[in-house]
From TrEMBL:
One of its GO terms (molecular function) is DNA binding. It holds the Pfam family HTH_31. This is XRE family transcriptional regulator. Transmembrane segments: none annotated. CDD domains: HTH_XRE. Residues 93-112 are annotated as: Disordered. Residues 36-85 form the HTH cro/C1-type domain. InterPro entries: Cro/C1-type_HTH, Lambda_DNA-bd_dom_sf, MLTR_LBD.
Length: 291
């Protein structure tokens, strides 16, 4: 289906996964004493909480009915969805809450954005697409994360590298948390790019990673925003950095991710020393344009 039509089958699987996470007592339902065959809420209980008929909810979860906006809101409240999960639900239902997208990623990074990256000499920064492709980066990001120039273009995806680049994997103090978050970001964007050939190819190639498959099937979703990570860099040492995601208003499917240290911290000193070394090795002539 197109992003405008949504994906009712996936919506049903998503709803089933979310109700399986809820305990009846957690949502105010009385204990019946009847043993439960499966974890979480029954369909009838979700329908009761959402104030709709069990038959209606069943048809929605089975992908046989496209729910109205008020019903989706009721179901979201019943399942206690987070803001990110709420947005994902509406995307799957073909009722996006944001202006319609054209379904195609802008893969060309503007000269203004490239200039911004190059001017961030003390902070690693990259431009990621909705589907986590690395579209552009500054020199400090190449020195801190990995040398993206040496990565084949087809492999230049942050999720792929996080699972397949030993150096990038070792950089993370808590690799599993970071990797799970990236998988959740990737799934969050699938409703906007259901026919994206690059995304399908990536998912196919990631099939050999059992951790990825497990987390992908868990259908956790999240939006890139801000956070904090501890890294162990081979030359700079241990650094604690905050990261922020900036989205361009002219290219909403491009996201600038910037890592920064707390001012006055040891991490700031160490990152500065790494930046000084990068600047000393910088070529006199401009770098060739990144693909």
């Amino acid at each position: 289906m197109s992003s405008g039509d949504g994906d009712l089958r996936e919506l049903g699987i998503f709803l089933k996964a979310r109700r399986a996470e809820l305990d009846p007592l957690q949502v105010g339902l009385p204990e019946t004493g009847v043993p439960r065959r499966v974890a979480g809420l029954r369909r009838e209980e979700v329908a009761q909480l959402a104030a709709i008929s069990p038959d209606y909810y069943t048809r929605v979860e089975q992908g046989r009915m496209r729910a109205s906006v008020p019903v989706l809101e009721s179901i979201a409240r019943a399942l206690r969805l987070t803001d990110d999960q709420h947005a994902y639900l509406f995307g799957l239902a073909g009722r996006p809450q944001a202006p319609p997208r054209d379904g195609h990623e802008h893969r060309t990074v503007s000269p203004h954005t490239r200039r911004l990256l190059d001017q961030l000499t003390e902070s690693p920064a990259v431009v990621l697409s909705d589907t986590m492709d690395v579209l552009a980066w500054n020199r400090l990001a190449a020195a801190f994360l990995t040398d993206f120039d040496r990565v084949p273009e087809k492999d230049r995806n942050y999720v792929w590298l996080l699972f397949n680049d030993p150096a990038l994997r070792a950089l993370y103090d808590d690799w599993e948390t970071g990797a799970r978050a990236c998988v959740a970001y990737l799934r969050m964007h699938t409703t906007a790019h259901p026919r994206d050939a690059r995304l399908r190819a990536l998912l196919s190639r990631m099939g050999s990673h059992s951790d990825f498959q497990q987390w992908w099937q868990a259908r956790e979703v999240a939006v890139q925003s801000t956070g904090n990570k501890v890294f162990h860099h081979p030359s700079a040492g241990t650094l604690t950095l905050d990261w922020d995601t900036l989205t361009s208003s002219t290219a909403p499917d491009q996201h600038i991710v910037v890592w920064t240290p707390v001012p006055g911290s040891l991490s700031e000193q160490r990152l500065h020393h790494l930046a000084v070394g990068v600047a000393a090795r910088a070529p006199e002539s401009p770098r060739p344009a990144q693909p």
